[in-house]
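Progress against Task 2.4 (sequence-to-structure conversion) is shown through the following example record, which the project officer requested during the mid-term review.
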Amino acid sequence: MKIPKKVKIGGHTIIVRQIEMVDDSTCSGDAQYVSGQIRINKDLPQTRKEAVFIHEAMHHINSTLKHELLDSLAEQLYQFLKDNKLI
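Structure tokens generated for the chain above:
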């Protein structure tokens, strides 16, 4: 999957950045609502970056889901897309 530099979610342009997560080296990524960004840890393997991208996009789509549920849904959606050669 090619991770884009920006996506549209809910009519808003969200900037996607692959950065060094210096503030928390264990962080895979985050959704920045105020600045309209998805940040992905650039040091992750490509497949993990792709899963994190889906996870963080889902945060922007629905920020009220509990993190554990969102994490499970994002991983399963990623596996579905990958295993069926949709990405």
